[in-house]
Design a protein that fits this description.
Helix content: 55-70%
Structural class: mainly alpha
Radius of gyration: 18 Å
Distance between the termini: 34 Å
Oligomer: single chain
Order of helices and strands: HHHHHHHH
Shape: globular
Strand content: under 5%
Number of helices: 8
Length: 198
């Protein structure tokens, strides 16, 4: 499936499974589900998720640069500066996500990033970054693996084992992808409308 379909399905699945009750929770749940839904495709060069990861890397570098400057101004160490801020765990999570993305981008499509090992590593990084939204991340990531299982190209669920699995029922950009994307949009809009009316 294409990135739009994975993002929409990740958001819709996260909303249906998590069932947020406040508008701000709806937005956060859908956004994290959508991001996790496209993350496994970091193994496609030039994909949208690759551009998102580059933005995250830029943000990470900016955060670290801020703490370096702050440490210089206050006369402390960078580690002390980060620890006092309360962001140490988040920064470690971002570093793991960046390392995950670099490694995943170097691997064949539907290999490492489409495995349960990768789902666990990415979920651990998400836990360190935003623990409260971890369920939305896990659901979004697994929605990607689940929908790709219907395609004709196999996934390496048990990476590093070479075995690839698929059902071979549809192509990545055919009618099934369009239908999945449209239903996912409908679910997201419907859930938002329901929450707004209740």
């Amino acid at each position: 499936m294409d990135g739009r379909t994975h993002a929409a399905l990740g958001a819709a699945t996260a909303l249906v499974v998590i069932r947020p009750t406040k508008p701000e929770d709806l937005i956060a749940t859908a956004a994290v589900g959508a991001f996790a839904g496209i993350l496994p495709d970091v193994d496609i060069s030039g994909s949208k998720v690759s551009r998102v990861i580059r933005s995250i890397i830029g943000g990470f570098i900016s955060i670290v640069a801020f703490f370096i400057i702050q440490a210089q101004v206050t006369g402390t160490t960078v580690i002390d500066s980060i620890n006092k801020s309360g962001f140490a765990t988040n920064i470690i999570g971002l570093a793991i996500l960046i390392a995950f993305s670099f490694y995943g981008a170097s691997q064949p499509h539907r290999g490492f990033t489409h495995s349960f090992v990768a789902a666990a590593i990415a979920s651990f990084s998400a836990y360190l970054i935003f623990a409260k939204l971890l369920p939305a991340f896990i659901v979004g990531y697994l929605s990607h693996l689940g929908i790709d299982y219907f395609n004709k190209k196999g996934e390496q669920f048990l990476w590093p084992l070479e075995d690839r699995r698929c059902l071979g029922l549809c192509t990545a950009n055919g009618v099934a992808a369009l239908s999945t994307r449209m239903v996912s949009y409908f679910v997201c809009i419907g859930y938002a409308a329901y929450l707004g009316l209740s």
